[in-house]
Amino acid sequence: MPEHKMQSGDGPPTISLQLVPKMLSPLTSVWSPKAFVVSFKLETNPEILVKKAKAALDKYHHKLVIGNLLHSRKFEVVLVSPDNEETIQLSERDRDTGVEIEKYLVAEVVRRHEMFRTEVSITTKPRK
């Protein structure tokens, strides 16, 4: 921590960033392997979005990747799970009236989580 404030006459500051570790691996393998874990994938190239989302599912063994492209992130997302892909896209009317993609995205994630909870409760009911 510097002792004094930066002087504007010294020129622009140099900022050095460091990568942070990926936390999906310990989350899905150690901390909570049975949880409904969702990750996000933002890309600029549509050719690799789904491929990278599927690679993340294979690597981290979680339930869902919400993928989007930088240029269309506010009106289109793709939900990639181990067994399917589904696109959610705002209609022109939704866009014109200010509806945000999260309205549909959150509803779909909640629906999938409820299905997951139902499946888990059926398969893990204690025997009497």
Automatic annotation (TrEMBL):
InterPro entries attached to this UniProt entry: CoaB-like_sf (IPR035929), DNA/pantothenate-metab_flavo_C (IPR007085)
Q: Name one GO biological process term.
A: coenzyme A biosynthetic process
One Pfam family in the UniProt entry: DFP
The record's GO molecular-function terms, alphabetically, read:
ligase activity
Q: Which UniProt keywords apply?
A: Ligase
Domain DNA/pantothenate metabolism flavoprotein C-terminal residue range list: 3-109
Q: Which family does it belong to?
A: Belongs to the PPC synthetase family.
User: What is this protein's name?
Assistant: Phosphopantothenate--cysteine ligase
Instruction: Tell me the organism.
Output: Cacopsylla melanoneura
